Amino acid sequence: MLDNCVTRRGILFVVSGPSGVGKGTIRSALLAKMGDIQVSISVTTRKPRTGEVDGGHYFFVDEKEFERMVAEDEFLEYARVYTNMYGTPKKFVLEKLQEGQDVLLEIDIQGALQVKNKMPEGVFIFILPPNIEELAVRLASRGQDSQESITRRLAACKYEIEQVRHYDYAIINDRLEEAVKKLQAIITAERCRVKNLNLGCDIT
Amino acid sequence: MLDNCVTRRGILFVVSGPSGVGKGTIRSALLAKMGDIQVSISVTTRKPRTGEVDGGHYFFVDEKEFERMVAEDEFLEYARVYTNMYGTPKKFVLEKLQEGQDVLLEIDIQGALQVKNKMPEGVFIFILPPNIEELAVRLASRGQDSQESITRRLAACKYEIEQVRHYDYAIINDRLEEAVKKLQAIITAERCRVKNLNLGCDIT
Fold first, then answer.
1. Chain B residues with CB inside 8 Å of A126's CB?
2. Are residues B64 and B108 in the same domain?
3. Which of A34, A44, A152, B50 is the most buried (most CB within 10 A)?
4. Which B positions 102-161 lie with beta carbon below 8 A of chain A?
5. In this structure, what CATH number is given to the domain that contains residue B53?
6. What confidence tens digit (pLDDT) does each residue in B146-169 have?
7. Which residues of A6-27 are buried (b: 16+ CB within 10 A; e: fewer)?
């Protein structure tokens, strides 16, 4: 039997892209359709909000513990956002992969490139905006940003989009449903990769 | 606009696997679902059957022309089957790829490995039987083969299945519908590969 002996290591899927491109929405829509993938849980120093439990949305730690984890190289990536620290714990991801579970990590570009340095065997997927102007509209319609801030972020965004060259796949987020289908296809395809399969028993 | 400027070269998809594994059925089922892929058309020295037109199912040539094409390296692969010659014409495939069309080639393992030598940038997909015994049943149920012939072919099949290591993807043909979905996912995913995209205008 091949069926019974095709085992597979877990695969790390990193979904990334510029701010405002809709990667969080794509991730949520994917998880609603696909049950058999483990979301990476971040470590953060920010305080839990009402209803948040440790090990659910986040692992909550204090600054001292976060610094210890940085010092002992326990993160695939980490970053400061305003006054809080966020990081992706290496141990959690590696454990899930060793159990044969695929792990999904949705993260900004700087973080994704850090992860790629540590785990180049991951599958790196870049979400592209349909066009740069569209992204400006999206950023503006959030209503949180001044015109100057939008202009600055657009320039940063153009630079960020160029980073697509470091990724394995690119998906244009034109229509959400199409983008999710493509992400699902990439996950299905990567699960069929010969290098990810362990075709053991009957074939030797 | 990214939409308008994302051009893509065509991709060569080679679907292959042992005799009797069901690769022809998978190909037909795929083509019924997916219109935007060009099937490779073989050159053959066998006589057209009723209803077959030149350039439709096959390009029909005489032996002398076939030999000329071999001599001038015009095949991606070729083989003798009983008294007839069959080959995959390089020019036809390359023209379609240059036009940005994807090409699907369904072929036995020996042929696929010849193609890989000439076009390693192709995407090589191996169809696996759910188990070797199942393949024996399939071969036997064709009713064309003696027990001795089946035994011999099974030994050859085990050797052939080991060739999966030269391929990019493996699909177990357990349930046809699932196998076709996986093939479709692989095609969709490969179309999203950054190395296959030409992200031109707006992002530089």
1. 194
2. no
3. A44
4. 125-126, 128-132, 158, 161
5. 3.30.63.10
6. 888 888 877 877 888 899 999 999
7. beebbbbbbbbbbebbbbeebb
